[in-house]
Amino acid sequence: MHTLTRELHIKNPSKIVMLVGDGLGGLPITPGGGTELETARTPNLDALAARGVQGLSIPVKPGIAPGSGPGHLGLFGYDPLRYQIGRGALEATGIGFEMQPGDVAIRCNFCTLDSEGNITDRRAGRIPTEESAPLAIRLREIRVPGIEIFVEPVKEHRFVVVFRGPGLGGHVKDTDPQATGVPPLEPIADDSESQKTADVAKEFLKQAREILASEKKANFHTMRGFASRPDLPTYEEVYGLRAAAVAVYPMYKGLARLVGMDIVGQATTLEEQMQVLKEAWDDYDFFFIHFKYTDSTGEDGNFDEKVARTEQLDSAIPAITALNPDVLMVTGDHSTPAYLKSHSWHPVPTLLVSDCCRPDPHTSFGETNAITGGLGQFEAQYLMLLALSNAGRMGKFGA
Amino acid sequence: MHTLTRELHIKNPSKIVMLVGDGLGGLPITPGGGTELETARTPNLDALAARGVQGLSIPVKPGIAPGSGPGHLGLFGYDPLRYQIGRGALEATGIGFEMQPGDVAIRCNFCTLDSEGNITDRRAGRIPTEESAPLAIRLREIRVPGIEIFVEPVKEHRFVVVFRGPGLGGHVKDTDPQATGVPPLEPIADDSESQKTADVAKEFLKQAREILASEKKANFHTMRGFASRPDLPTYEEVYGLRAAAVAVYPMYKGLARLVGMDIVGQATTLEEQMQVLKEAWDDYDFFFIHFKYTDSTGEDGNFDEKVARTEQLDSAIPAITALNPDVLMVTGDHSTPAYLKSHSWHPVPTLLVSDCCRPDPHTSFGETNAITGGLGQFEAQYLMLLALSNAGRMGKFGA
Q: How far is CA B222 from the centre of its chain?
């Protein structure tokens, strides 16, 4: 699709807003009942529905429940099956580490070894963060010539290592043997481009073993999910959009950064996000606003709280419409029904409003209406095309 | 998609049932009238519709009417454009011949040659089965060193030959010249891997010519549709499912066997199929139940009889729901409208029931409701993904 958008996009002064309620779609919890979105009182979303068009977005393919990475890449218009973000890169992104092209990120787990060098606990007893973080920071002493190394604590036994330097491929096998009573594995390159990465990892592990040798809680670590920064073309390149992300959590800022969005503001609440949006309004063409709590309450299995958070999302709408965006979309990166306490495969209710969107007859926003909404069921990766066209930013394909 | 399902599938004790009414979809025969399914009294299917979700399954692509092979491969989750079953292999499968990997199957037609060796009738006057079968069986005398040969009578002028042995490619040109007054063609290999197959076919034809020389009704035969057994990954490999097929007709047993299903029972009626299902219930995770008569009555152009057969299909539902499957799907491999007396391209009404299927508002099952059903219109190849997800048998894609 980006071949087309690169050729056909047009620049104009229009403004596009994509408001993502993470895990927005849901399920009824009582037979014949409504979903979370249908149960919530959402006068502002319903008013948008009345003048807009709704439908169901399929994050990846029918029946596939995506993680946050593929869920957002789809919304951003990147085929999530083609552009896959490796585990290490996603972990680094999730803690706000800004990977550069050529970087290789690795998820590391502290572990314990016995006197023979065999693993006794692959997660070092889930060592508390306050004890593991100082250990991770001690590993910053490690030096490998020609390579810049970053070590970032995460939570409990987890930390992230990033190698930066020329010629580092991202295909190296995990050193976690997925078993105890055996020694950790050597890092082995899966292709010749990654041999140097494997060598650097080997040297890193050697020095880490010495540094950690006398530690009681965690005297070594494994390395998993080696991954290069995914090579994603930017919003500027493929859509001609100056794009801003207004997000609270590092993961979503990181995903936005991977497609070239600027991270604006330091909001910690939805109200602050709306303030940031207003302040950044003149400087950008496209705004991605991320709201986390429709997902986290779904993951908790708390239907009522997801309803309440959906109502909170609804309350942000007037601050957006006051800015008169040319195109306003409200959607989710996937469904997170409280009933399932997890991300799911169900298509996501999606709403688009513009002055030329061909409204459908619905006057409220929800999963059931979306089935018969004017957008139909469509793969998320096409939403950005609809946004560009509704903003007058796409030329005609062919003569 | 199987790359994803191989990685993401999870095993659990859930049970999935796919009930296929062959050629289920139909057309009205009077303006404004209902289809066969809509005309039939189907209280059990309607009760499922009330708690489930329906939609329209597109067997291959919009506007493509499939045969039984691609129709079922799609339902089984195999891209029917990628996995094509060669004509010889489908013919062998259809008569219940169990092809092994490496086998090459060929459709043969008895024909008549004049004294010059030119074809006078490409179908030997559609010689009756009772006369052609003994001739086919005489061809079992043919010996080619190193090759095991099977000759199976079919109907009228048709029979099937299968070669079994090492190094047999499946790409050999037909020997039927598609004309009379000319001699049959030589079997010519299309690639070097199939040279041995062509040589074996040549020797087979030489011996067949001698054996049949003095026969009056059919003194030779042509060979068409050379085909290797299609190399399909199994349900166990791609979905982690122990799968059973409860079918009556050899063709559908054969198709199920190609994807690694076990053929269970020897039912000859739908009631017996339900009994077989019950007996096999504990031993499998997935059950494919095939019902032929919604197709055959459609092919006959008998609207009323297709309605009656649809009601018969409906009557089997309680025996299935009594087993409490976690996921129950009712669908067809294609439409066979009595109005057209043939397979058609119309999308197929499809129903899915599970405890997490996000029900739609419909309370009866049929083509018109399916248009606005929650499954939307989707390619049949995604139905198995939906089944696995609804059964809790698919992990999340990406983090």
A: 25
